[in-house]
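quick one, 200 residues, struct below
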Amino acid sequence: MYANDSTPLWLSASPGGPGGNATFASVTTTGAVNVGTSINIDAAAYFLDASNNLTAAINNNNNGTLALSGNNAIDFKQVGAVGGNSSLLIRPLGGQDIFTTGIVDADALTLANTGGAATVGTATLSNGQATVSTTASDSTCYIFLQRRDINSSTAIGELRITQRNAGNFVVVSASVPPTAPTTTVTGDQSSFDWMIVNPA
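---
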């Protein structure tokens, strides 16, 4: 099979368009490989530039994983999507397992703000206290707070987390300077934004 720089290589189970499955012992290409359903790489795929320099590679680690590497930035884009409106979902085979990576450089980060496992949200103090329920909370999580609005507060305190529990955390408006035990500012009816980060 051969494709030049101006004509992509299409693999199809039937005439008229890409489709079906393709299995390769290895792939070396300077263009694009478009497969409608799936591509199975038994050994490795190597992507070369016009001067036959290696720019990216997909290697089978022989343990059910694929290692993707490249000398240049590797861009993922949904075919036919308008730039900026495509997406890429990467997750472990188990779906709910931990996905471990290195430094992540992203233009935007979308976090769950609905449902029982929300990791970001907004809550409002009632007489200086609020309990936020989410299964993302546990005793070891990191919780970040930011006041959103003072609402009808007659006094303002310092937002402070007093409890981190499995399933919820408690925020109080603490007097400033701090006292021990914490004195709650009951006149604080502020709303606040929160975000949870769980350590690996």
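The two ends are 45 Å apart (CA to CA).
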